[in-house]
Amino acid sequence: MIFGLLYITYLSFMNKNYNPLEQQSNDEILKTRLKIQNTDYIRDIINGLPYITAILNSYRQVIFSNETLLQQLNISSIDEVIGLRPGEVIHCVNSNKEEGGCGASENCKVCGVFLSILQAQKTKGKSQYECRIKAMHDGMEIAFDYLATSNPIIWENEEFIIFSLTDISSEKRRKALEKTFFHDIINKAGSLQGFIQLIQSVSDIETIQKYTHLASDISQELISEILSQRQLIAAENNELAISIERVESISIMSSLIREISNQKISQNIQVIMDEKSTSEYIHTDINLLRRVLLNMLKNAVEASEKGDFVIISGELSNSRYVFKVHNSKFISKDIQLQIFQRSFSTKGMNRGLGTYSMKLFVENYLNGKVHFESNELNGTTFYVELPYFETV
To answer: What separation, in Å, do the N-terminal and C-terminal C-alpha atoms of the chain show?
Structure first.
């Protein structure tokens, strides 16, 4: 619901005069910058703030920034950011998609940074939005969670925005762990304890074997849950060690179908493999690949309804082996724009990390690519493309 409201907010704030290509000239920007630099109280107040802060003109361009911005973003001089927009300053991956830069791409419609500034300009009042930013640093995508705050001011008869970013990544991670990881761990541990108590209370060998088998499955899920969080933390810290081996594609998909079909979420939903799938040997980390594909299957199953089919397939395409997971449901446009962002989830506040972790593992560690397509006619398909090297 909240994501649809963001999109509506964007549309309601846009006006006929909005044009992302419009910018103030460099000469005008430099004149204003010099005025601010020579005004002690403004310069000192901005530099005294402990979080990233910039003064923006009415075109959302940086006129002045504080030292914290330069330090946290590893920028050597304020000259490097003057005239840029916030997304361009922090190297947002969406800021160079369109000619207009930050604020011009389709993804900007649900960006908290953009919406915060737009609302402050529209209402002439303080505006705050949480935002998820994917930024490029040293050739790698890094995810941030920020609280964007925009305060409109009038100075020397001109309108400006005091814009700030507060890093809330640690807080979002803590809440996500509390909401999902710890919650799931406690539930699984409780179920395991229940089955152990049942085993202790019965004497029939067949019943004991049945309960022991179920308890073993739960313990494996428990271990898998813990390992997945450990892997995610290691991956974000660039400390994840991977083990590349030769694996066969059909056997991976078959085992995943058995695993997901035995889980409660798959009741009344059929998970099958496309008969056109081809058997190929690929070189990859099988544990990471299984985790990514299983996550895709879980998402597809959870989005499906009773009697639906979820189809997994794999085939060679342009020297890459492509895994596909398909379900018949359409993902609304406002949600599509936020998939793969850290902390984003359709399952409620303070969840997420699912699609984000898939992209992180595949693109940063398996030298592959993750993407998706979704439309009302064909439903939704997620893709994992991995490099394929033919073995002689």
So the answer is: 53
> Distances from the Cα of 3 to the Cαs of 108, 112, 177, 344, in angstroms?
13, 11, 22, 10
CA-based max dimension of the chain: 87
Q: Is residue 300 part of a domain?
A: yes
- At 87 the pLDDT is 92
Cβ neighbours of residue 141 under 8 Å, at least 6 residues apart? Answer: 93, 134, 135, 359, 360, 363, 364
Which residue range is the domain that position 348 belongs to?
245-387
Retrieve residue 240's tokens: 């994840």
Cβ neighbours for 327, distance < 8 A, ≥ 6 positions apart: 300, 301, 303, 304, 308, 309, 310, 311, 379, 380
Q: How many Cβ atoms are within 10 Å of 100's Cβ, its own excluded?
A: 16
Single-letter amino acid, residue 9: T
Backbone angles phi, psi at 385, to 5 degrees: -105, 130
191 and 152 assigned to the same domain: no
What is the crossing angle of helices 26-37 and 40-47, to 10°?
90
pLDDT digits (tens, 9 = 90+) for 332-386: 887 888 787 766 665 544 344 578 888 888 988 899 999 999 999 999 999 999 9
